[in-house]
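Notes from the pairing session

We agreed to fold both candidates in a single pass and log them together. This is the raw record for the first candidate, unedited. Please don't reformat it; downstream parsing expects exactly this layout.

Candidate A
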Amino acid sequence: MSYVLGIDGGGSKTVCILMDDLRQVLGRGEAGPSNYQSIGIEATLQSIQFAIYNAVKTAIITNTLKIDAICLGLAGVSRAADIEVVKGLVQELQNNKYLSINWALQPANIVIFNDALIALVGGIGQPVGIVVVAGTGSIVFGRNHQGHTKRVGGWGYILGDEGSAYKIAIAGMNAALKSADGREMSTSLIEGFKQYLDLESIEDLIEVIYRREWGVKQIAALAPVVDLAAASGDIAANSIIDDAVKELVKATSTVIDAIFSSDSVLEVVTTGSVWRGKCKMHEIFTASLVKKFPEVNVIFPRYEPAYGAGLLALQTTQN
């Protein structure tokens, strides 16, 4: 029996799953964030170690646990230099005496990717297709049968992230303030933001956004205000949602055109908080994309990204 570890490391948490060669999950553990670009190497290592520890302790295995492969899908890992850094972390893991693991790793069984690929593999259940991530940020990533990949977006909140919760929230606040100025149409977004943030006046957004030093995640958390307004029929809010959908459809179309044929039968998995709203954004996106590419099947994730990492690790033991 082969055992592998799949790790999904992001900006908010780290998830580790312990999987056998029958694709069964024997243990699952969580820990803190592991984006080393933002929290540093040591903190990242601690989160990964703790996630592994939690996964292993939940598993019922009678013999000493031997790990034959590991896959780490980490946010912020995209360059060759990043991969070398993470390889160093894996070596540190193997030197950790507190992890009750017999490491049997060979270089070919240590695989390191960005988090988009494991979201694709976990979401679909195989490494072929497209993932459209629309959460705090946004990215579209695809891989075809030949192993060719294409990424669109993922440039961050300043340079990109079209269709993300952050950009939807920013557009919503812009629309509310322009309406308050009299520059744009009347919108329920004014009252929506006032109620959500307990503001006396929409002008108090200045204090919230600037003086409280809100970051990307806090601002992105305001996207549901736009979603609810759009679901209630607000014209300005629906225009924002329509623009977000157009950007995500355009990004997905670009991936299809780059590595698939226009009549390819393929699955597109959608993941992230934006798709769980009440304004039927998922349905609008699906209808728009299928109109362009009739053979595309848009789905929600079948499995979590850590499971996708586990599948990629397991693949290295079967080659």
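Candidate B (folded immediately after A)
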Amino acid sequence: MPQSFVSFGATPYHVSLLALPDAVISTLAGIYDVMNAASLMNLVPEGAPAPFHVEIVGEAEGSLALASGVPINVQRAIESITNTDIVIVPSVLLSESGWEKGRYPHLVEWLQEMHNTGAVLCSACSGVFLIAETGLFDGRDATVHFGYAQAFTTCYPEVVAHPERVLVIAGLRDELISSGASTSWHDLALYLIARYAGATTAQEIARLYALQWHQDGLTPYMIFEGKTDHGDADIQAAQQWLCTHFSVANPVEEMIKRSSLAERTFKRRFASSTGLTPIVYIQRLRIEDAKRRLERTDATIDDISWQVGYEDAAFFRRLFKRTTGLAPGAYRKRFRMPDFTLS
């Protein structure tokens, strides 16, 4: 293996990777391997210590079944840890009832204590649910898996959530770090390696593991789902009609006619109920349909523009990039299944 030219410190940084029953094993195990990669891949100069000493910690030592039922070995109990440099809470799997506060009082208390002693607290994906219970994120920015964003905001309204962002670094000393959906834990691990072991080491580990930074953010991965639980029957009827008629000419005018409401009343109630103006809501539906067509068909971008309701393909291209963060062609390249999988 090629050697890194980073000058590591005399003492490794202690990383506490927290295991709890709700944790997702792929995230926990992946972070463990990548944070240990300098040692595993022989990137440490001869005679120098590894940059990190990573331990899987939990409420008790021994075997612990994670969310999938697969056991992990907890190497050290948190009660024996009075000081650590970095704490990482991996992704957790939420039940249908959502995150239940108060299930892990000892973990929450320990996280607060570690923060007080100077530790950097990190979350991968939905792991921020546990750290947010400490109150340390109140009034601060964070990111979370976009699929859990509404549940997180409901649970922690004091936290400013940005599910479209890959990595959010907050706190007076940059000590509160959250990463977004699923494999954006790659970005978290690479950031920590770059921060504490140097950019050269992070680049080498990214290359060896074929890890990529999510530099376009998470917006391209997010699926639009209009809010429908608002209780306004007239607007719900309009939304239902739009599901199959968003591509028609003048859809806003058609909805207003079908609703029997005055134009100003309809637009006001629609925006109040869905959080979006009628035209923006329609644009989101059209772009979402265009995304599926780019992923699953060979239709040209101009044809897709027309199919979803836009005669002006140039306008469609601009709107698509503004909405998703990617041009239509780049989106197709990113998300289209490889040809060998379709044979």
